[in-house]
Amino acid sequence: MNIRNHLRRFAGPAVAALALSLATALAPTASAAAGGDAATLAHANIGKSAGTCADTPTTNSLGGSQFETSCSGNGGNGEFWCADFAEWVWQNSGFYTGGLTAAAGSFYVYGENNGTLHTSASYVPQPGDAVVYDYSGGGVADHVGIVTSVDSSGDVITANGDWNGISGSSESTFARSSSVVQVTIPASERATGDYVGAAEMTISGYISPVASGSGSTPPPVDSGNPYSPNAVCGSGYGVIDSHGLTGATVYLLYDDASGDNCVVTLATTPTSAKSMNATLAVQGGASTSNPGTFTYYAGPVTEYAPSSCVEWGGSYNGSSWTSGWSHCGGGSSAPPPSGNNIYTPTQVCGSGYGVIDSHALTGATVYLLYNGSTGDNCVTTLATDASSAESMNATLAVQGGSSASNPGTFTYYAGPVVEYAPNSCVEWGGSYNGSSWTSSWSHCGNGTVTAPPGATNPYTPTQVCGSGYSVVDTHALSGATIYLLFNSSTGDNCVATMATDPASAESMNATLAVQGGSSASNPGTFTYYAGPVAEYAPSSCVEWGGAYEGSSWTSGWSHC
């Protein structure tokens, strides 16, 4: 490679003045999307030489005879031009380049001046970033390249000007014989302080370009931050939550294709570099942060968490916030997202909730969940194929108590609506784009959750059927038990089929028929139990039964 120590010189005043005059003429509204343009432009010039002065003459991809002063900066001859190439890419992608020179280290100083120097080991490089190697202070470094992409394995792909020149030659000979070369930084070597074997140098930091400026620091951006959370985190991410700080906003994003969460803290009206951070932790897993002094944003920080709760937050200039464990993925005990909806009911309602019932609408499903630790019920309506915002609602009422709903126009889900109901029946339902449904009073609790003997199900048959009921008979299925209960005060019978060791939603049913009278059943896919089904039969025989995952049973006429 033979590039070490070739890039320490500064450009002369005339070149610096030219760069500054060009930079200040740039439109001040260049957006973060140009970062992708910078990556594309850098990649388009792989294989190009210094220009028409090179041993293998080429023009750059925009038709120019050189990159900045790659062919003329050394007294009319070729100069060490890795910084020329990086500056040319940023400038022609609409970014501010004030303060940049032909010295690789000027990019490090640029990052310090503009608040976009990333030195945290957890920082995820972004397309368009500059990567500086072996910075020794005073604007002196050995090399600078441009990040063109980060692949699915985390490897960082870079484009590097003035690479592979003739070793041990003069500056002009090295410049004429070198070219733009693609170099891959392995994921295990991409952090600041890592030695990169392919480059034979150590990473000193990554620098993000800024949208506008004059002099050595950018002016206030009157229209607010030119970056968006989606642009910072990258293609495929969507915002799922946010929290306002004093002077900034923390955003949580999710990429359903990869299962990754991303957090970024964006200054509201950036005027100068401030102390900022973005944090993300996976419950029972890894965590990451990006503390530093930045002008526009801290982060992005990413973690894989398709089935886990996350704790996310950030800080800005002394104002900070961290969430509780929230936005929990589906895991093994919750139904998966329907259609292309990236959310699950347990993710919407939160940690500790389990699905106990559901009802299909046209284009959506309404879910009823319960938290045995808190006694809270939760209802959410999830679109099956979330393609656009539609009229939706989720409703929940406690018999003899309060009620809640969440009508509105949403893309993914309505709700969650939550009510405390450990000892009461609930009426729950929802609507989606004109299709609606509301249950009768059901799922009546009876206080403290106590599991049946030998079972891990957090519910009891008396909790499911409600206060006043007592178990009068049972029948074991493979993986579940059917319970028959009677309420002597009302004359009602009740049947519930309860999973012994609930791990996922399974096909279940509970049935009850009165001899010479009515009957009821509750077939469906449930995690904890099917039912309750109740019928008035103080003086009649009943036929009761149930099913669980292919195992079924029905009594004869009995309990007359």
Describe the structure.
The chain is mainly beta. It has eight helices and 34 strands. Strands 1, 2, 3, 4, 5, 6 and 7 form a seven-stranded antiparallel sheet that branches. Strands 11, 12, 13, 15 and 16 form a five-stranded antiparallel sheet that branches. Strands 20, 21, 22, 24 and 25 form a five-stranded antiparallel sheet that branches. A hairpin with a 2-residue loop joins β17 (353-361) and β18. The longest helix is centred in the N-terminal third of the chain and has 12 residues, at 13-24. The radius of gyration is 32 Å and the shape is elongated.
In percent, how helical is the residue content? 10-25%
* Rg estimate, integer Å: 32 Å
Average pLDDT over all residues? 81
Percentage of residues in DSSP E strands:
35-45%
Q: Shape from CA axes?
A: elongated
Summarize the structure.
It holds the Pfam family CHAP. With 560 residues, this protein is mainly beta.
Keywords:
elongated, five-stranded antiparallel β-sheet, 560 residues, seven-stranded antiparallel β-sheet, disordered N terminus, mainly beta
Tell me the layout of helices and strands.
Blueprint: H1 13-24, H2 34-44, H3 82-91, H4 105-114, E1 117-118, E2 130-133, E3 143-150, E4 156-163, H5 171-177, E5 179-185, E6 195-196, E7 201-207, H6 229-233, E8 238-245, E9 248-255, E10 260-267, E11 274-282, E12 287-289, E13 292-294, E14 297-304, E15 310-316, E16 319-322, H7 345-349, E17 353-361, E18 364-371, E19 376-383, E20 390-398, E21 403-405, E22 408-410, E23 413-420, E24 426-432, E25 435-438, H8 461-465, E26 470-477, E27 480-487, E28 492-499, E29 506-514, E30 519-521, E31 524-526, E32 529-536, E33 542-548, E34 551-554
Antiparallel strand pairs: 1-7, 2-3, 2-7, 3-4, 4-5, 6-7, 8-9, 9-10, 10-14, 11-12, 11-13, 11-15, 15-16, 17-18, 18-19, 19-23, 20-21, 20-22, 20-24, 24-25, 26-27, 27-28, 28-32, 29-30, 29-31, 29-33, 33-34
Helix pairs in contact: 2-3
